[in-house]
Write a structure and sequence with these properties.
single chain, 216 residues, mainly beta, 54% strand
């Protein structure tokens, strides 16, 4: 009986010593504690969407800091790349108009399994933008008009809007400093006020792709 008691005491002391050593080596994790790793990223971003049932391509950039490999905070901005294809004939009686615009803001993101080859992220963009109609066709008039011509009067109408865009992406770590993200998002931009145009003009789904560079 005495031998069993001594053996149990030795096991308890040994376990306590090991636990104390592990505790000293691994600091406690807290919500507001200093992050153990700070990284960064910058990326060209592209998206396919539809505006008034017309195919539209968006392009832009994003960048920011990455905390503990998983949580990112940064900025992003996107613009319509094919405005010359977004022609509307029912807005202005005397001429066709083309749709120009873009948006951007604060970009937040949480990524699951960031150090694995394949990971999943949940980005959220909060910001604003502007969109408008112009009689100027960038693809044609840029090359054939007088380069000193003032095109300011050719903007027929424009409006600003608030935007909220949540999404989900699948990431593939190509290299230690390069990551490919492919996913989808939904752009919610309520109450766009343009003549002869739905107020939900900028609402819609995006198919997204980004090639990120940085220290993840």
């Amino acid at each position: 009986m005495k031998f069993r008691f001594i053996l149990a005491a030795l096991i308890l002391i040994t376990a306590s010593s090991i636990a104390q050593t592990d505790t000293n080596r691994a600091p406690i994790q807290t919500v507001f504690g200093k992050p153990q790793h700070i990284g960064w990223w910058i990326s060209p971003d592209f998206a396919y969407t539809q505006l008034s049932n017309r195919d539209a391509w968006l392009g832009g950039m994003s960048g920011g800091v990455i905390l503990d490999h998983s949580f990112s905070i940064g900025v992003a901005g996107y613009g319509i790349m094919n405005s010359n294809s977004l022609v509307y004939s029912n807005v202005l009686d005397t001429a066709n108009v083309y749709l120009y615009g873009g948006y951007g803001g604060l970009k937040l993101e949480y990524r699951l399994w960031p150090l694995k080859m394949i990971n999943i992220a949940f980005p959220l963009l909060i910001g604003g933008g502007g969109v408008g109609y112009s009689t100027w066709n960038w693809n044609h008039d840029y090359y054939y008009d007088d380069p000193y011509h003032d095109h300011h009067h050719e903007y027929y109408s424009w409006d600003g809007f608030f935007v909220l865009e949540p999404g989900v992406t699948v990431g593939i770590n190509l290299l230690r400093f390069m990551r490919l993200d492919v996913g989808a998002s939904y752009r919610w931009a309520p109450s766009v006020n343009l003549p002869s145009t739905s107020r939900e003009l900028m609402d819609g789904f995006n198919a997204t792709m980004a090639l990120r560079f940085g220290g993840f």
